[in-house]
Design a protein that fits this description.
Layout lengths: L5 H11 L4 H10 L1 H12 L2 H6 L5 H8 L8 H18 L2 H6 L1 E6 L4 E7 L9 E7 L2 E11 L2 E9 L5 H11 L5 H15 L5 E3 L11 H6 L7 H6 L4 E2 L5 E2 L16 H21 L5
Parallel strand pairs: 5-6
Antiparallel strand pairs: 1-2, 2-3, 3-4, 4-5, 6-8, 7-8
Helix pairs in contact: 1-5, 3-6
């Protein structure tokens, strides 16, 4: 497979962001060594070249802004390369061809999917989502590396009947809201990989915070992630990110008798999903 070059990336970038030609050229001069570091990393393995072959421009988008505007470009390069290391170590070959893979099928209607983030790569290289009959109900984006997992965004699907789908999903998921399942999934992946540091981006540090006024003028809803993480007993840290602690599951004997059957089914679902993820990512193999 042909290796990528800065000219190939620029061509891809300009086809998507025609008005940013001058701005990009200036950034390429200022950040030349960092751009080269990312290119070298991708060219080091044909699987990575294949992973980004549909849009090489996103490599630069992530390099210029990634997860939080408070993160320096040196830190961004480290995070992006760690993301790629993680993919090479754990993702099956089919992921690099398809840019996605099914992590687990809860039943005939619901699936959990891992994808390369194609919607907004600046919020994290990876996306995990819950789909009902291939309709995206809820999803989150994240970055993962040695010793950490950071959540860049979490939200419901952008479809007209999303409220009805969330209600249906909650019933089908044994009383568990899709957002709760997504958070549990990320915490479980971290647990399986022996990662004890799971954080979520806060309102003040999110990449869209500085754009919030423009977004509101366009009637685009802007999520206050501080409120989201508080719902999961998050602890705000000095760097304005939130530490997300492990979820505590109720013991069956502490659950009201009329709900015990539902909780048993929920916990059985958790066990199946965890087992599927472990097998697919070849953890401890």
């Amino acid at each position: 497979m042909q290796k990528i070059t800065i000219d190939v990336i620029k061509k891809s970038y300009f086809s998507s962001y025609k008005k940013e030609k001058l701005k990009l050229n200036i950034k390429l001069i200022l950040y030349k060594k960092y751009v080269n570091a990312i290119i070298d990393m991708v060219n080091s393995d044909t699987r990575l070249v294949r992973l980004f072959d549909d849009n090489y421009a996103i490599l630069l988008r992530m390099l210029f802004v990634y997860i939080s505007r408070s993160i320096s470009i040196k830190q961004r390069v480290t995070m992006i390369t760690k993301d790629m290391d993680f993919a090479l170590r754990y993702f099956p070959n089919e992921f690099f061809h398809n840019k996605s893979v099914i992590l687990s099928e809860i039943n005939t209607d619901f699936s959990i999917n891992l994808r390369r983030n194609c919607m907004n790569c600046m919020e994290g290289m990876w996306q995990i989502d819950v789909c009902y009959k291939k309709q995206m109900v809820y999803w989150a984006t994240f970055s993962i590396g040695e010793g950490y997992l950071v959540i860049g965004s979490i939200q419901g699907g952008n479809i007209s009947n999303i409220r009805e789908l969330i209600k249906l999903s909650t019933k089908q998921l044994y009383g568990l809201r899709p957002q709760q399942l997504i958070v549990w999934l990320l915490l479980e992946i971290a647990k399986l990989l022996d990662i004890d540091r799971v954080t979520g981006v806060g309102f003040e540090t999110h990449i869209k915070t500085t754009m919030s006024r423009r977004l509101r003028r366009k009637n685009i809803f802007f999520i206050d992630y501080d409120t989201v993480w508080l719902d999961y007993n998050g602890i705000k840290m000095p760097n304005k990110f939130w530490h997300i602690p492990a979820m505590k599951l109720k013991a069956i004997e502490d659950v009201a008798s009329k709900k015990r059957s539902m909780y048993r089914k929920r916990y059985a679902m958790f066990e199946k999903i965890s087992s599927d993820i472990k097998l697919l990512l070849e953890i401890n193999k």
